[in-house]
Hints:
313 residues; five-stranded antiparallel sheet; 9 helices
Amino acid sequence: MRLDLTEIKRITVGAVKIWADDGFRFLSTTEEQLDAFAKLSDSLRRNAAATTGVRLDFETDSEYIAYSTLTDNRYELKLDGLLTSLTEAKTGERNLLILPKDRKPHRVTLHLPSHGESGALEYLELSDGATVIPHSFDRKLLFIGDSITQGYNSRFDTLSFAYQVSDHFNADSIIQGTGGSCFYPDTLVKLDYDPDTVIVAYGTNDANKFATLEEIGKNCKDFLEKLKALYGGAKIFVITPIWRIKYDEPKPFGHIRRVADLVRETAEELGLTVVDGLSMIPANEFFMADNLHPNDLGFALYAHNLIKVMERS
């Protein structure tokens, strides 16, 4: 049996918009946010339109899962929480995974791609008469940030720190990581989603794009004030910039730690919880995929250390 739009919506996590045309399409950012990113640059809009964090998550006693995609990209599938299938999907091709034939419900999580062309499904098919029960979550998280939050340079999307933190807390989550983004207040809107926790991580790109601390500071203050006004009922964590290979490279305003200090001071003034980004991963190239982004081991440590902070806060 092939699931219809109503059933797809019931089991989708991480999307703010789902619609059907020649298949099923998803957005993890609103149209208003996409317009705001488009005013900044085409590349930011393109990155914001990726299906970062979008997944179909459900329990089923089906004997198999089959799906066809509308985009050429990687689709990752977990069975009972374990990464089981890595499919370099081709548009229109049928992808099939046989499930255990024990007549017991198993959790299936189909992760759409976090980068490049947005993920979209032509269909999702299960055995006739199979049960389809949306997975039950314990928490609701909202991640907001740049390419590090998006999981850039992680070899597998599901190894990003945001995904790993979500899995640890058994959390429904929206991951609004946008490569190249900064503290841009106009890109922040109130979603039809009420998280108990918000994690925001900017500053790395701000240090590269702006020449003065005054401009960075104004953007940061305006963004965090707006964030608090929109999600004041949630616990808000603000992560300062993590280590980078050229951490000591001078900027027009001095050292990048001045941006970290600025973010920390602004967040503390607003009563938000500050997370020291330098404590997330070691200051060692071994944990980096490039100058700015952690590799898979770096993301694992980032997730581990952030989880410890969140559990004791």
